[in-house]
Write a structure and sequence with these properties.
It is found in: Nucleus, Nuclear pore complex. InterPro entries: GLE1, GLE1-like_sf. With 511 residues, the chain is mostly helical. The protein is 76% helix and 3% strand. The protein is rod-shaped and about 190 Å long.
Length: 511
Amino acid sequence: MKHGSHCTINDSEDELDGQVEPYHLMEKRNLEKSILLELEREHHLKVQEEVRSKLAALEVGHQNEIQRTISAFARLQKYAESRKEIDRRLDVHFQRRIAEVLDKHLSMVQRDHEQKSQIVERRIRDDAALEEAKRKEQAIKEEKLRQERARQEAEARQKEAAKLAAETRKTAFEAAQKEAAEKEAAEKEAAKLREAAASQSSQNSQNNNAGIKVFADKYALEAESRRRALVHNQVPENIHLRKEFAKYDRQIAKSISKLMPTTDSVRSRASELIKALDGQDCPRPIACCLFANKIISIVKSRNTKDKTFGNLAFACGYVMLLVTNQVPDAMDYLLAEFNRVCIYTVPKHLHALNAQARNRDYYRLIGYQEENGQLESTESYLTYVVAYVKLYAAMIQTEIKGVRHPHGLAEGWKWLALFLNALPATTATACALHAFLKMAGFALHKKYGSQFLKILDVISRCFLPALKDQGNKMQSEAVNNLQNYLNDKIYLQEPEGQYLVQQLLSKELFM
C-alpha cells in the first residue's frame, strides 16, 4: 500500500470529515479500491486509537511515576529530618557525657593538685621547723661556746691581773729598799699596772670614749662590728663613683625608684633586682652593697611624712625578703647599711657626757646629716630616725608563706629586748621605739602574745616615767605617741598596707 497521498493521520481525518464523503458521491470507483480505502481508513483509525491509548497509558504511567517520585522524595526528606533529629539528640547526649567526664577529670586533677599542694606545704613547714630547730640548736651551742670563751677570757684576765699585781707588789717591795725617787717611780708604775688590770677585768658594753658613753648590748655591738668589717673587707670605697659599677648602680636605682605599694610592682621589682644581683659581670658583694644602699635610700628619695610612706615601707619589706631569700648574702649588707644610717637599728645610743663632747663630730656620729656646712635640725634628724626604723621594722615583720626569712620576727623580738635593756629613755629612743612598735607591734603580739604584753608593761612602768622626767617639747610629743599606742591598744590593729599585699603575694607565688 502506498502512503504517498496520505501524509498524516490528521490529513486522513480531514478527508473523512469534509472531503472524502463527497468525493465518493461524485466519483465512481471500483469495489476493490473502495474496500482498500475503507481498510486503510480503519487501519488509520485503529493505529490512531492505539497511539492515543498508548499515549494515555504513557501519560498515566508518567503521572504515577511522578507521584511515586514525589512520595519517595518526601519519604527521603522525612527520613533525613528524622536522622538529623536523632544525630542532634545523640550529639547533645555525647556532649553532655563528655562534659560530665571532663568535669570529673578536672575535679580529680584539682583534688590531686590540692593534695600535692598540701603535701608540699606540709613538707615546707616541716623543713622550716627542722631548720628553725637546727638554727636554735646551733645558736644555743654558739651561745654556750661564747659564754665559755668569755668565762675563759675572764679567768685569763683575772689570772693576768693577779700575776701583774703580784709582780707589782714584788717590784714595790724591792723598790722600797732603794732611794726615795726610785721608790716613788716604782709605786707609780705599780699603780698604773693595777689600774690597767682593774680596767681590763671590769670592761663591758658601756664604754667611755672621748666624753661619749655608749649604750648598747655587747651582742648588738659585736654584730654591728662584724657587718661593718664585712663591708670594709669585701667592698672597695666609693663604689658609686667607679665607672665599672655605674651601670649596675643605675640599673638597681631605676628598678627601686619604680617601686609602688602594689602586688604587681613588688613582684616585678623583686624579679628585676634578683636578676641584677645574679649578674656575672658585677661581683656579688658589690651588687649586694649597691642594692642595700639604694633600697634604704628610698627614705631620702620619698616623702617620709606622707601617710602612704608606711605602705611603701611594707612594699620595701616584701622586696627585701624576696630578694634575700634568693640572694642570702644581701641580708648582711642590708643590716650593715641600716646600722650605718641609723644607730638605733643596732640598737645603740651615744650620750655626750658634757657640753665639750657635744660637738659637730658627735652629731655626725649619731647620724645628723650635713648640707652646705650646716647640720640638719633635730626635728629633721628625728624624722629620718623614725623613717629608717619604720623601714627596718617593716622588713623584720614581713612574712610570706613558704618563704624563709633570714632576719624575721625572732630578730625583731631580740631587737626590742636589747633596746629596752640597754638604751636610756630619751626623745630619740622614744621616737625609734614608737616607730618600731607601730610597724611590727601587730605581728609581734600575734606571735608572742602575753610575752609581748609584758614588754609593753615594762615600757609603761619604766620607760615612760623616765622619759617624762626630761620635760621638753619634743619629749612631750614622744610621750603622747607611746602613751596613745598603749592606751588605744594599737598593737591589736593590723597596719594599713601590710596584710593585703601579703595575701596576694602568697597566692601568686605558690598557686
